[in-house]
Amino acid sequence: MMSRFLQLGLDRLSGWMGVPKSFPLGGLFLLLGISVPGSLIAAIYKQQLALAMIPAGLLLLWQTLMNLERIYFLLMAMIPLSIEVQLPGGLGTDLPSEPLMWLLTGVGVVWWLQNWRSVDARFLRHPISLALYAHLAWLAVCTVTSQGSFLSIKFLLAKGWYLITFYFWAGHFLNSAANFKRMIWWFFAPLLFATLWVLFQQAQTGFSFEKAAYTMGPFFRNHVSYACILAVFLPYVWYVRYWSRPRSGAWWLLIVGIVVFIVGINFAYTRAAYVALLAAVGMKWLINWRKLKWGLMAFGLIIAIFIGFVGTRDNWLLFAPQYEKAISHTEFTNLLEATTRLEDISVMERVYRWVAATYMIQEHPVTGFGPGTFYTFYKDYTVSSFKTYVSDNPEKSGTHNYFLMTAVEQGLPGLLFFVVFILVVMMQGQRIYHKSRDLLHRRMVLAPLLSFMMINLLMLMNDLVETDKIGSLFFMAAAMLVNLDLEKGGEGVES
């Protein structure tokens, strides 16, 4: 009886691992039986923790060969739990998410060379894909002309594995309603765990605003990253609940998740996330009434008027802070009040860098300084009257406005290509939404579309696309909209 039970367990395990029935299981388990204690002994002897991960690496390699789709969804689960680490030589990475991206990129190149004839050409020539190619092509041009070639090459490589993983592989794997929902669940469960972990740490400080920045680890760099991922993932959770039977276990878990995420956003004390959530309501209204084009034109006009005012007669000097008054605050109400009076240090530090960015754009308006080079050059273009207590920038952060940073690093044409890509995604998303006559399919469109729009709003005050937690959702949203337009993502929608 026991042997039959054990054999059944082994058969199920081998089936899950994708082991062919003809494969000698004894050999596989013998290999694991040798590698696990062997790697542990080597790790202890050499005092290298990485050696203990050899068995996990072997299993990962095996699954890559047997079932690549599982590796992709494993990456979805790892993104909310990834930890930023610094490697020797000053390089940084996100573990374990970024090594999985490298693996998927390498396999993706090989897969493309072998299967390019079977790729859906409609996905490759969709307007969203074409706009993305233009953005990527100009990025490559700016890498060639860069003032810091090494940094720009690294940036271009990183952009490459982001696009292969989160756009092209997403287009391949997230091609059905079942996989659409599967992605959400694989992302949702770890994000819920990470949020509960942060809330537990915050509870020990009495949810103190002053100590909030020290309770985000190890999964989030800061409270902005934490609040933003919760905000931009919320549309997925909100709409996937319609695909679960009301008051079922899955339905209640999603409701709990929504509540937990909103509580997490509230105690993250991140103003941009609050604004993004409120704006999402207006965005949905614009989409429903086919007014998105007019909303974007109105928003663009406001930005143009502001830039025109600031750039006339040195009016930008009116925004210069008083050095002694631009300080951090220990109470959230004081922070909001200081924001309206331009005395909050985080807002004024952004202005400090934005002023430098405008001077940099004037010096290299066509091809910019090169991708990934803002931090290297910006301090030579700053204006001392905008300096704050944190202007030394030890964390080496960027412009805190992704659009300005794009113009600095890729020139005004680079900004234009990037904005065109964004506008194409948004307008195509509205068209796809109204093209569908199925209510659940429309909700599937709204989830990535609203998430994508919220990310762009957040990018006005933050640099997010180059981070795994937000950049992943940014490009996946675009890929999912293409699939939904091709009616691949809506097949098999269940009520």
Radius of gyration, in angstroms, nearest whole number: 24 Å
Q: Order of helices and strands, N to C?
A: HHHHEEHHHHHHHHHHHHHHH
Work out the number of β strands.
2
Distance between the termini: 42 Å
Describe it.
It is a single chain. With 495 residues, this protein is an all-alpha fold. The chain has helices at residues 2-17, 25-46, 54-66, 68-78, 97-115, 121-124, 127-144, 149-173, 177-203, 223-240, 249-268, 271-288, 292-310, 332-340, 345-363, 374-377, 402-435, 439-458, 468-485, and strands at 83-86, 92-95. The chain has a two-stranded antiparallel ribbon. Helix 5 crosses helix 8 and helix 9 (177-203) packs across helix 11. The longest helix is centred in the C-terminal third of the chain and has 34 residues, at 402-435. The chain is globular and about 60 Å long. Residues 16-20, 22-26, 323-332 and 334-342 have low confidence and may be disordered.
